[in-house]
Design a protein that fits this description.
- There is one protein chain.
- It is built from 10 helices and 12 strands.
- The chain is an alpha/beta fold and 306 residues long.
- Strands 3-8-7-2-4 form a 5-stranded mixed β-sheet.
- Helix 5 links the parallel strand 5 and strand 6.
- Helix 4 crosses helix 9 and helix 9 packs antiparallel against helix 10.
- The longest helix is centred in the N-terminal third of the chain and has 16 residues.
- The chain is globular.
- The two termini are 28 Å apart.
Length: 306
């Protein structure tokens, strides 16, 4: 037996044990599921629907036909999207094994796009349980690509129709909620303004957010803010720390739209293991650095994170 073999076996055993620590449904996410429909389009298509080459808008009445026309006229790619679902998808990719470590709840329509969304979530190995209804069609986000620009048009539709009592409160679904160890629900824009913090200093906002009253006093609150290419800020009870993001060559950056969702996914993938916050942030930065080099919130088959 070669001298290095016992050590290699020990390392493999440790890696196996590390993988076995996680159970299915350890991470729970809930939010607005959207089917991302991506296609390279021409200027005429943008002009027809009054779209700017690089923009993010919510669909209006005039965009009603846009989604079907996009599918009929251009070669499209479909992805499971929506902010929280993106994060959960990235977390599952980072975790790799077991499949279905991540659970996702949201609302879709009983239609063709809903069926595609279910298939795409399954391909990402996410355990998605959608509340399906017939009042509104499945939420979609059209990504209209022209050269280096992406014009995003989101139609929330069914995503707004979630009914807690008809889905979350069902015993089989609530059991999945109870199985989870980490929960992620992302809806926190313009937070500082609403709290009347009267400051635009990110570190100060983080510090004040950390100090807000908390029901569960057994665990201190930890606040983390990302700032695009600027430092990530973490506020704990005792200090505010900053972490530089991974620097990417500008020429390699394809699409920064999914970077924030990817950071959260990477972060959550380590949080479920109870790893230190610094390690969670490092994983978040890694995931974001991968996603910005690709179109949409997509990723290679396996992560290269150590």
């Amino acid at each position: 037996m070669a001298a290095g073999e016992p050590q290699a076996k020990k390392l493999k055993l440790e890696q196996k044990q590390q993988q076995q620590q996680l159970s299915e449904n350890v991470l729970f996410g809930m939010g607005n599921p959207l089917l991302d429909i991506c296609a390279v389009v021409d200027k005429d298509f943008l002009d027809k629907y009054g779209l700017k080459p690089n923009d993010q808008i919510l669909a209006e009445e005039k965009h009603k036909e846009l989604f079907e026309e996009l599918v009929k006229k251009f070669k499209v790619e479909y992805h499971a999207g929506g902010s929280t679902q993106n994060s959960v998808k990235v977390a599952q990719w980072m975790i790799q094994s077991p499949y279905k470590a991540a659970t996702f709840f949201g609302c879709i329509g009983k239609d063709k796009f809903g069926e595609i969304l279910k298939k795409k979530a399954e391909e990402a190995h996410v355990d998605a349980h959608y509340y399906e209804q017939s009042e509104q069609p499945t939420g979609t986000c059209a990504a209209c690509i022209t050269s280096d620009n992406r014009s995003l048009v989101a139609n929330l539709a069914a995503a707004n129709c979630y009914k807690k009592e008809k889905h979350l409160d069902l015993e089989k679904n609530w059991k999945l909620v109870e199985k989870a160890k980490v929960y992620y629900i992302a809806e926190a824009a313009t937070f500082a303004r609403e709290q009347g913090f009267e400051t635009e200093d990110i570190k100060e906002i983080a510090r004040k957010t950390q100090a807000l009253p908390k029901v569960n006093t057994k665990r201190q609150r930890i606040v983390i803010f990302t700032q695009g290419k600027d430092d990530t800020v973490m506020a704990t009870e005792n200090e505010v720390t900053t972490f530089p993001v991974l620097v990417s060559d500008q020429s390699e950056i394809v699409d920064t739209n999914g970077a924030g969702d990817a950071f959260v996914g990477g972060f959550l993938s380590q949080l479920v293991y109870d790893r230190p916050m610094t390690e969670c942030i490092r994983a978040g930065h890694y995931a974001a650095s991968v996603i910005i080099k690709r179109s949409g919130c997509t990723f290679p088959e396996k992560p290269d994170f150590h």
